[in-house]
Design the sequence.
């Protein structure tokens, strides 16, 4: 179920496979397998935990922009003064992924 959600998020946000691999910390081959359904995210892995953070970020951002996918993509690709970077660039590190999720949760008052 999480694998399908991550694939949907990648599609909605136009995240390239190479970037998705960097976000989840897996090889391009693993991303290809995830994207074509040949592999599922396994709950006992680090990539599963990172995928959970990405899903959390998706839900928070979706709530913030009222399910407007264009607005979400714009937020991801625009320099954020408080985060001091484009969120899409920050997602490629664990610290950045967590910072973006925490930022949105704080914005929504769900912390």
Sequence:
């Amino acid at each position: 179920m999480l694998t399908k959600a991550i694939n949907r998020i990648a599609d909605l946000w136009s995240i390239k496979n190479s970037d998705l691999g960097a976000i989840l910390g897996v090889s391009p081959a693993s991303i290809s397998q995830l994207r074509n359904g040949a592999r599922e995210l396994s709950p006992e892995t680090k990539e599963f935990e990172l995928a959970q953070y990405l899903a959390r970020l998706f839900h928070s951002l979706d709530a913030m922009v009222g399910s407007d996918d264009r607005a979400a993509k714009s937020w991801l690709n625009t320099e954020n003064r408080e985060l001091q970077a484009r969120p899409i660039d920050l997602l490629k590190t664990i610290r950045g992924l967590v910072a973006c999720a925490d930022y949105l949760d704080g914005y929504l008052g769900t912390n």
Remarks:
- The chain has a mean pLDDT of 94.
